[in-house]
Amino acid sequence: MRALKDTWTMAKRSLKHIVRSPDTVITVLITPIAMMLMFLYVLGGALGQQTGSVKYINFITPGIIILTVISGIAYAAFRLNVDIQKGIINRFRTMPVAPSSILGGQAASSALSNLFSSLIVLLVAFAAGFRTHAGLVEWLLFAGLTVLFTLATTWMAIYFGLKAKSAEGAGSFSYLLMLLIFLSPSFVPTSSMTPALRKFAENQPFTPIIETMRSLLTNGVAGNKAWLALAWTTGILVLMYGLSLRAYKSKAAVVNG
Amino acid sequence: MATAIAVEGLKKSYKKHEVLKGVGFTVEAGTIFALLGSNGAGKTTTINILTTLIAADGGKASVNGNDIALKAEAVRQSISLTGQFAAVDDILTGRENLELIGDLRHIDNSGRTAKELLEKFGLTEASDRRVATYSGGMRRRLDIAMSLIGKPSVIFLDEPTTGLDPEARSEMWRTIRQLAANGTTIFLTTQYLEEADQLADTIALLHGGTIVAKGTARELKKLVPGGLVELTFHDMQQMQHAEKLLQKQYEIVRGDSGLVLTVTNGGGITELADLLVRLRDAQIELADFVQKTPTLDDVFFKLTGAKKEEK
Lengths: 257, 311
Description:
The structure holds two protein chains of two kinds.
Chain A: H1 2-19, H2 22-47, H3 56-86, H4 88-93, H5 99-127, H6 136-163, H7 167-170, H8 173-182, H9 195-203, H10 206-219, H11 226-250
Chain B: E1 3-14, E2 17-28, E3 32-36, H1 43-50, E4 58-63, E5 66-67, H2 72-78, E6 79-82, H3 94-104, H4 110-120, H5 136-148, E7 154-158, H6 166-181, E8 185-190, H7 193-199, E9 202-207, E10 210-215, H8 217-221, E11 227-233, H9 236-246, E12 251-254, E13 260-265, H10 269-281, E14 286-292, H11 296-304
Parallel strand pairs in B: 3-8, 3-9, 6-7, 7-8
Antiparallel strand pairs in B: 1-2, 1-4, 4-5, 9-10, 11-13, 11-14, 12-13
């Protein structure tokens, strides 16, 4: 109970940080929206041929949502690292507050803010012609998977935020994740890739997640990759949660150590 | 009196560099304790260990009877740390900073406590402004105010006045004295001898990884034998004469300004009289004469072997 309350206290603090730096909110939204428009209107004519009966905007929207989340979580790493550099984390560390609450606050605010930016991006996608037959259950499953994915990657961000030497470098791991989005069936079907790349794309963790999201929105069913998607996200979440807590506890007082 | 902090044989190394080589001291509850040392002596390392931020390699320490390694959680309940740099949240307002700590410490009314502390530290007008707009002194005051929430019985202050202007410094000293007067135990580190002299009930001098001296300021000053006599002359000729006369028996240093000699003697009346008689017999007249008692500076430089010029 107490731990939950502390987590919420920390989440509120983090949400204030997000709301009070509107520039970061805009940056987080600009990347995926620009990408979506570029893929749709610049490359869509050519790439759209590859997706068969599926409308191209419907095809790319799940990948765009993933991109939104990735560009959002990078700031969680940044904010946490600023806390370390400024020494306020040392104040928290000497207080009777559970580490899971201090870090969990970041995770909770990240999940909420990313859900919000995903919603905005979805609205833009609708305006650009995105249509779905998904019902309430599919939408809830879609939102659930998005939150789970956000939490898993946020804990990754927390880990890198704890480990990074500078706030500027804290978010750089997200570029690798961005690369994973492009090396997946986000924007083109894997069948159009070279054999080696295709093998990689079909077996990397983002692929079942994106395909499950797409299946939920376009076919109205979770599809056969759903369990794999769930396993990957849960696995990453548990692993990164454990690594982050360990990093937090063993972290020497970095400021004027 | 109860013991608030007990430290024994504390050791800590970073890679091959041995920072603490067996540090020990005790701090009585409700007193002000100053850990004195130059830059890099290991003061912050000691404070980081005692506040559970880092683990020691060896030795034992307890705060309010709770072992820092075994009962870190209980230690955290009763302490607060104000680090060298103000640990405040720039994006939140002063009030929000205080309420945040109040909520995390689960006090009954964070809002009211925040309001009282803002008043006490002269931050009421700035209470709803973001801390990023605060001056250095205001940040420091907010930092201290945040440390008082939940009424911790032991407060750790790491170089609380470093970088403060003289006015802010004396204000900080006032705050520290007030806290101690209300029964809070204060553990502070400082590199200013004057600060330790002014504030502390007990001083421990940390040098080369160990405590080289501890006691009250008065006790420490006794460690420097004798006193210094500062002699001022009317002209250069007389000064040189005196220098020649006295240097066989005393340690003499020429002062910074032209006509001053500083003589180290035993500090006793007989020795002082002897010195003056010698000067009179040689018909040397003094323009001025000052007997100086040793300062903590002298103790510090004597015990650490540091040269005064390096100060």
